[in-house]
Amino acid sequence: MNTNLQANIKETDSYKNDKVSFAIWSLFVGLVFCFSNNHNALGIANYFLFLLLFVVGILIKRRWTITLHPLMFSLAIMLLVSIRFFYLVEFGTLASYLIWFAVILVAITYSFNKKELSVLMWGFILGAAIFAILVIVMKYDYYSDGRGRYTVQLWNNEKFDPNFLAAFLFVGATFALHTLLHERKTILKLFAFAFFLTISYAITMTGSRAAFLGLLIASCGPVLQIIKPGKKTIIFSSAGFLALFAVFMLFPDIVPVDLGRFDPRNLADSSNALRIKFWKATAVCFFNRPLLGYGSIHGTTVMEILTKLKDPCPHNTIFSLLLNFGLIGTIPFLALLWKIFNRYRKLGNFEWMFFFFGFLFVNLIISNHMGISFWIPLMIFHQVSIAKLFKVCS
Question: Could you tell me whether strands 140-141 and 150-151 are parallel, antiparallel, or unpaired per DSSP bridges?
Fold first, then answer.
C-alpha cells in the first residue's frame, strides 16, 4: 500500500479515536451561548463560569500539576505593582486578569487533539452565527444619531459595542472559512459556507472597519496556501496592494459610489482622529512608567488621571497590556505572539499565518485585553502552531 495513503488512513483513524474532554466542552458551551453575556465589550465580568470549569478540567487531567511559563513572570509583576497602587486597583480588572492567566497558562502547557480544536472552532462559529442573526434581525443602531452601526441589545438593556462584537464575529467567520475549506463532510461544508456568509454580512452591518479589513487579510491566507508564492511574489504583491490603497487614499473620487464607513474617503473621520489622539495619550502614560506599568488599574483610569481626557481608552490591546504590565511584563506576551508566527512561517502555512495576521490587526485597533475574542483565539492559534497538531490542521 502507498505510504502516503497509509499515513492518511492512520491519521483518520487517530482522529476518530480522539476524545473531547469536559474542559473543552465547557469552553464550547460558553462560546455558543456568549450572546447571554451582559458585558458590552464581551469581557468576563459576569460570564466566567465556563472558564473556571475549563481550568479545573485541564488541571484534573494533569493531576493538578502546573508547568512554569514566562507569563507567570508577567502575572507576578502585575500583582506586585497592584500592591503599590492598591488604592486605585480595580478588582474587576484584577479578577479578570487572574482568570485569563489561569486559562492561558493551563492551555499553552497542554496539547489539544484535533477533535478538541474542531469543537472549539465550531463553538466560535455557532456563537458568531447566533450573534450575526441577532444583528440582522434586531438591526439595533448603537448610536442615537443614526450612523448605521448595528449591534445587539443586551439582556440588561445595554448594547454590545459594535467593535467588540465584530471582533467576535471575525473569529467565527475565520474559523468558518477554515472549516469550509477543510471539512470532509458535505453537510458541514454547507453549514460552514452559510455561516461564513451570514457572519461576514453581520460584520459589515456593525460598521467595524477593523474586522472587515481583518477578514480580508485572513482570506488571503487560503489563496496563498494554494499558490505557495515565493518571497519575491509576496513582496511584489504586498507592494501592489499598498500602491492600490495609496491610490484610493490620494484620489478617493475614483470610487463611483459612497461605501459608507468602508469608503476610503471616510477613513479620516472623527472616529479615527479620536483613536489617534488616544494612542498619543497612551504613549504619554506608558513613558511615565515604562518598565513595570500600573498593575491592575484600568487603562481608562490611568489616562483620565494623567491626561485629564474625558472617557479615554488605549484603543489597542498591546497598548493596554503595556499600561498594565509595563515593557518587562509585556515581553512574554510578545514572545508568545512571535513564536506562533514563527512556527507558521517555518512550516509554510500561509493560511493560518494570515488568519493570525487578521486576528492581530483587529486587536491592534481595539483594547480587547479582557475579551473572550482575544484570549481564547490566542490559545487556539498557539495550539494549531504546535508542530504535532499543525500537520492535521493544515
Answer: antiparallel
